[in-house]
Design goal:
The chain is of the alpha+beta class and 526 residues long. It contains 8 helices and 30 strands. The two termini are 33 Å apart.
Length: 526
Amino acid sequence: MISALCWVRKGFANPHLDIHEPSEREMAALREAAGLEEDGDQDNEIMQSEDEEGPSNGNDPASARKNAMRAVSAMQETDEDAAVIAEYGLDDYDNEPDGLEDVLSQGLSQFQNNDDDPYMQGGQDTDSEDEDEIALRPDDILLVSANTEDDVCSLEVNVYDEKQQALFVHHDIIIGGFPLAMSWTNAALGGLTGANFVAVGGMEPAINIWCLDIKDQMEAAVTLGGVMEAASSEQAGAGKSGSKKKGKKNKKQKAATSFMPGSHTDSVLGVCFHPSHATVLASASADGSVKVWDVTQAACVSTLQHHGGKASNAEWHPTEESVLLTASFDGTAAVADARSGEVGLSFKPASGDIECAQWCVTDPNLFAVSTEAGVVCIYDVRKSKSAVHKWDAHEGSTSGLCWSAGVPGLLVTGSEDKLMKVWDVQGNQQPELVTQRKMKIGQILCAASLADSPFTVAAGGSKGSLAVWDLTEDDNVRKVFGGRVTGDAAKAVQAGELQQLRGGEEDVGEGSKQQKTKSKKKSSKK
């Protein structure tokens, strides 16, 4: 399944991936694991050989019969080999006058440089050609998805070709723990060059930040919080009095529940990098807390405890630096000051657990929340605590919610009812359903809009597939939102109209053309 996804802005990814060099600690762990596996394989081979060969004692009739059959078979094989050698004259093979040396000595040309060899022209740069084929271009758009398949969790970095409307898997990163939330940043972290990182929150209390420009990496570049290692926990609990047996039991319990300073103590359900301070991260956890992290120091700088249930979302305001939008499974949403920890406003949709909460980029006074009951609410922080709009958007839990980054009033929702819907929520009128589509990726678990292209939205589903939807393909979208955009977005609408008139695209019905392929190499582009 695809449990989380996020877009990477154009121009921040390195064209070529760096190769991870394992540290001494990583190599020691690999050697230890290899040693254990090697011992296990040797034991299995010994046991297998004993089972196949049986006891070495040949006095019993069964063993004698087996030994006799083996001897007869060996004699037959020897006779057959002798017949083959005599028929083809293999005994005199090495004595032939025209041997391999004579053949090589006739007409053989040697060149000191491959460039001088006419037969080597055009075939010596295959490695560089392959590298160029999978190299990222400055205008490539990356879509990162958190994928779980057969108990293996990974981050898949996909390349979205906007012109060809195609999606390819470029490379993947194996991670530990089931991922639940992601956020991308362009900060340089962990002493690494480049600025292309993604923070991942999951079932564990730790937040891992991975570099998307490194291949075959074994550990995250930065880890925030998490469970202490057993040795550290035992040292922290040393010196406490008590009976010997009771003391050992307490140490084991201490090791299982000791956390790094400032860490969450339960699953991390939401993460969000600051839009203008790229090394500041907000997180929401099932322990009920919302935390603010200084990623450069790997330290928690602020903790908010204003929710009565599991905190599911933490979103930075687009323009107000210290303002956070938070949400919880207790059915409340809040606008809080991350510096002081004070809650300015609190809202309660009263429609079940809140699945998603997000600020509107085109109008930062608005934010939307979606619930497990399929209800979507829009609030205006300048007005009362009651919702400006509240309606039944879906027939199931709505875990996909995203505003368009450049089209006023365009809101996209996705649900476990397998539908994605586009809504017009501008003004005071009741939200209008503009279009909907069944994405054919199972239950929709997450959705994200592309900031570089305001009419492009991606969704991840329970079937483990991605879908990217170009909204300009729809007539109603162009009619309703076409007049609200300018610049490149307006050109995209016009291109969609021309394409529709020319009939250049086949009808995709209720599905989406941009399905994720399993290729690990990006196809060549003309």
